[in-house]
Amino acid sequence: MSARPASTARSPVDPVSFEIVRRRLAAISDEAAITVMRISGSQVVTEAADLNAVICNRGGEIVVSALYMLVHTCALNGLIRFLVEEYVDNPGFGPGDMFLTNDPYVTGLHQPDAVLVAPIYRDGQLIAWCGTTVHESDVGGPVPGSIAVGSRSIYDEPIPMAPVRIVESGRIRRDLEREYLIRSRTPELNSLDLLGQVAANRLQTEQVLALCERYGEEAVTGTMDWLIESTEARLRERLEALPDGRWYHVGYVEHDGIEDRVYPVRLTMTKTGGHLDLDYTESADQAPGLINCPVDLTRAFVLATLLPLLGFDQVPWVPAAFERVVTLRTLPGTVTHATWPAGVSLGGTSTGHEVRTTLNACLARMLDQSPDDRRYILASSMSSAPGQTIAGRRHDGSTYASMLLDAQLGGGGARIGANGPDTFGLLHSPGGACANVEVNEANFPIRYLWRAERVDSGGPGTRRGGVGGCHALTPHRSTGPVEMTVWAHGIEQPAATGLFGGEAATPNAFIVLRNAAGVVGPAMAHFDPSLLPGPAEVPEPKERLTVGPGDVVLSLCSGGGGIGDPLDRPADLVMADVREGLVSPQGAARDYGVALVADGDCPDGWRVEERATAALRRRRRQQRRVGGEPGPGPVLGMAGTWSAACPRCGTALDGPSSLVAERLPAPYRWTPAAELAGTGRFSVERVACAACLTQLDSVVRLTTVAPAG
Amino acid sequence: MSIRDVYIPYVASVFSAYGAATSDLVVRSDAEARRLDLHRDTGQIDAMLRQLETQARATLAESGGRRATVELRAGMRFMRQVHEYVVTVGALPFDAAAAEAVEARFRQEYETVVGTGSASTDARVELVSVSIEARLALGGTEPGAEGAPTSWAAGRPGTGPTAGSPGASSPPTTERRAWFDGELRTCPVHQVDVLPGGATIDGPAFVDLPTTTVVVYPELRLVVEPGYLRLTAR
User: Fold this and answer.
1) Which one of A136, A438, A455, B11 is separated from A25 by 20 to 30 angstroms, measured CA to CA?
2) pLDDT digits (tens, 9 = 90+) for A74-102
3) Closest in B82, B117, B122 to A188, CB measured
4) What backbone phi and psi angles, to 5 degrees, belong to B199?
5) What's the gap in Å between the CA of B122 and the closest CA on chain A?
6) Closest-CA distance of chain B to residue A116, Å
7) Nearest CA to CA, how far is A160 from chain B (Å)?
8) Mean local confidence (pLDDT), A116-130
């Protein structure tokens, strides 16, 4: 693999040194992240890898990022810019200094994410920057775990720590360390995380300086600069080879932690030549609650989406280069550009995820214009995540508070030529994982009844979206109840969108069963919701719960979106999915029009009934006519102009009359969501070509943003 | 290459010949101690260390070796870290003062690895395991050295034949056909465990060891010597 130089400019570094140094820089940042993991005692870090490390050039542009929680580091240059603009004279910075902050309005993250950056000096001259990020178990605030559901501003959330020079000339300032730790319910763990970050930044500094000794300072700094320039040139070439165009997508965040209002995130993406214009200015006004993104968090999600989706075919993932080909437009006071003191402690896993999903959808439409690049298209992976924080006392009286990261088990979006990966995780966190069940059980007074793949959760399509994960847990050896905060969006509506007729994945979900630990068995991981024992509580999309002995909390991740008309998926592949436990026999009929009949002679107990399947699919296609034209609003990713043709029959799609639509209530694939009044505001419109009845799109429609009821 | 003799130890396929033939005999054992508190449970920790030492000395005593030296160790970490760092524990008894000394040693050595100021004052230190390394010096076991074990498998406690008469031979247990010098020949195959010390085998022949096979080429002679096989030119 080679970082191909730009066509006209020339590298200031010889090609061999360039390759060696850039790969060494990547190894250094990876080693730094591993260092934090080895020093930390928090399962959020050691198991789930909710951290990252980064190296920047002297100007603070991000050259190399490790591949753990990628979104942590994509906009870290905002913090460096702040230090240069605000602190250069007072308190100043020099060799051996490090700055710590968890201020989302500076870091572009949320309060639990602590960021530590360090300038790198050689012979008294600033030559580079490095940094690390860690998601802390708890950084204080009114809600254990620090996701402040119910907050009405940042003053109700963990009060962030402004950037402070916590390491001075290599010496950790214990007074500032104390100031940082005193806020937390988990000071022991946070202390180790901080010391891990210090060690990691020291490592990066030492290794970059050693690289300068070995290859020369100019080779190192030159490599950083050339890596940005050459990658930018390659990206522009890639974009210039694609037709210009404009695409549109809207995603929805329901519930801001206070009330169940809906906040649309609207993107209009315009590609002109070698440039992308991303316009989020039509997004909703910022919310009273915690779902808002500071603009740097929006920027971080944009970059963490562009890297995996445009950085294919060996283009180096250099955030600074990707940033250069993008203009990001946001409007202050909206959910994608929150202004102080708007609550932001869940900005990423709400609005941020919709920033990612909308961009994902638009990029797919853009790449669809290129026969060569279509194969890199990915439908949306799980959007949002059914997150949980837990807190309370163990049987020995000790306290705990932490986030569980089982929610990182969402399904991946389908590709043009393949199903989406199952329990894929988060697109913007390539190295993220979830903690082992045994680790969580050892650390906290909880017991898992199961963790499994969630049947029928992948978006139906010719290529199926990957299925998500699910789990059920109950308090175990807990002194008193477990205080739990649950949060997600994409609960009342399917947020992980499909493409080209593929459908969105089954929504995220929580279910609470009171006094049910004795009757909920692992077999229910593959359940029909109607079989759940006793009355089930369906929490609001953001809610604080008290979970007592015997109570069971189910958390179910969305899958990834599908690609292509589900009725075109070969029946034998659907049967294979049933055999794998990824699709239920009922789902095969409902989602794919495949009729299975019980057959004791077949190894799986089922076989495809060919004639019934053909008849069912014929009937399904005819049903697509019944809704008439699509309702108002964009379809096929087109914004305003109609310029498409049916890929099946070639009919020009030049207006609503060229399409037919079938409308379904939003919970059509996940009936427990009907328990939530807000679900009734959403519907799903399956859009098909009026001529050949091939399904071409699947769109979520919203009737009102106001709270239901 | 002017190599006159090739020495082949019992575990030839695993270790270097020289290292296996000359290394000390070492017994290591450990025990999980995660449920114990370093400062509160010194009595139990002391008992675990004593038990490990007793077991290790007993194991070495069966080898008839000289008096072994032992080093007691404690695997420690800050709370819930994934990896442990092992520090030396001083002489028994393991009491409150020993616990203090061990924690201080852990913090000091941790900083040499992770960096100055990195031993958190806020995080608890956890005891993860206790272990022992008992070492029996096999001084003089270099090939041909005085005092080397007198049987082929002396380095492997409890197995192997006793020394036989120098120069004695032992009948092969089976045969194997093999090409040597362009000629397919029927060659004897010997099992090492039944070869008496001092036995000689002229090539072509094979000697089967538990983990490998020694090929004795036609121009070579194999001699069973104390603790190893020696290949030499005929």
Assistant:
1) A136
2) 989 999 999 999 999 999 999 999 999 99
3) B122
4) -65, 150
5) 5
6) 15
7) 21
8) 98
| Per-residue pLDDT tens digits for B76-116 | 999 999 999 999 998 899 999 999 999 999 999 999 988 88
DSSP states of chain B: ----EEEEETTTTTS-HHHHHHPPEEEEEEEE-TTS-TTT-HHHHHHHHHHHHHHHHHHHHTTT-SPPEEEEEEEEEETT-SS-EEEEE-SSP--HHHHHHHHHHHHHHHHHHH-TT-S-SSSPEEEEEEEEEEEE--TT-STT-TT--SSTTTTSTT-SPPB--TT-----SEEEEEEETTEEEEEEEEEGGGPPBT-EEESSEEEE-SS-EEEE-TTEEEEEETTEEEEEE-
Tell me if A192 and B116 make a contact (CB, 8 A cut-off).
no
Global model pTM greater than 0.90: no
DSSP structure string for A478-537: EEEEEEEEEE-SSSSS--S--BTTPPPPPPPEEEEETT-TTT--GGGGG--GGG-SSPEE
Decide if B185 contacts B204 (C-beta within 8 A).
yes
In this complex, the residue of B79, B80, B118 whose CB is nearest that of residue A195 is B118
Mean pLDDT of chain B: 82
Q: Which residues, 6 or more positions from A411, have their beta carbon under 8 angstroms from its beta carbon?
A: A381, A382, A420, A421, A422, A423, A424, A457, A458, A459, A465, A466, A467, A468, A496, A505, A557, A558, A559, A560
Name which of A5, A125, A123 is nearest A58 in CA terms.
A125
Which chain B residues contact residue A43 at CB under 8 A? Answer: 80
Cross-chain Cβ contact A191/B121 below 8 Å = yes
How far apart are the CA of B51 and the nearest CA of chain A, in angstroms?
A: 28
Q: Write a three-state SS string for A323-344.
A: HHCEEEECCCCECCECCCCCCC
What is the structure's pLDDT at A709? 62
Between chain A and chain B, the number of residue pairs with CB atoms below 8 A apart is: 56
Q: Are A392 and A480 in contact (CB under 8 A)?
A: yes
| Range of weakest confidence among A51-60, A303-312, A583-592, B59-68 | B59-68
Which of B116, B119, B123 minimises the CB distance to A188?
B123
Helices (H), A95-134: 104-107
Q: How far apart are CA A98 and CA A177, in angstroms?
A: 12
Chain B residue numbers touching A172 (CB-CB < 8 A): 117
Tally the C-alpha atoms within 13 A of residue A556's C-alpha that lie toward its C-beta: 29
CB B80 to CB A42 under 8 A? Answer: yes
Q: Which SS3 state, helix, strand or coil, does residue A167 take?
A: strand
Q: Which of B81, B82, B115 sits opposite A198 (nearest CB)?
A: B115
Residues A384, A353: contact at Cβ < 8 Å? yes
Is B154 in contact with B109 (CB distance < 8 Å)?
A: no
Over residues A270-324, the pLDDT tens digits come to 999 999 999 999 999 999 999 999 999 999 999 999 999 999 998 999 999 999 9
Examine residue A566 and say whether the peptide bond preceding it is cis (omega within 30 degrees of 0). no
Matching residue, tokens 């390394």: B133
pLDDT tens-place string over residues A228-282: 999 999 999 999 999 999 999 999 999 999 999 999 999 999 999 999 999 999 9
Whole-angstrom distance, CA of residue A660 vs CA of residue B39:
75
CA distances A508 to A78, A151, A227, A409, Å, are: 32, 23, 40, 11
Out of B80, B116, B121, closest to residue A443 by CB: B80
CB contact under 8 Å between B117 and A191, yes or no, is no
* Cα–Cα dist A686/A697, whole Å: 6
pLDDT in tens, A585-631: 999 999 999 999 988 888 778 899 999 999 999 999 999 988 889 88
ipTM above 0.85, yes or no: no
Q: Do B123 and A38 touch (CB under 8 A)?
A: no
